Amino acid sequence: MPQPKPDAVPASEDTNLLEVELNLLKARVSAAEKQIQALAEATLALARGLEARPTEEPVQMHPEQAARLAHELLLAAGLLASGGDTT
Predict the structure, then answer these.
(1) For residue 10, which of 28, 32, 80, 82 sits 20 to 30 Å off, Cα-Cα?
(2) Residue 48 in contact with residue 66, Cβ under 8 Å?
(3) pTM score, whole prediction
């Protein structure tokens, strides 16, 4: 009967490593999904602030307010550094 190689990983350890890897990938996908959602919300805030429809009442958000809201959404999502000027 052949002896196992010293660097061979037993099947149960290999399965555990795959489960750990899968859990790490799931966490990364979840984080990416949250970031995409935050970017979509910020983009929507900017788009709404920049819309200029002549048939609408002038109560819509101004571009400055939209930019501030988009910035705050990105900060809240942790996608921007909170300190200093971003320009």
Answers:
(1) 28
(2) yes
(3) 0.63
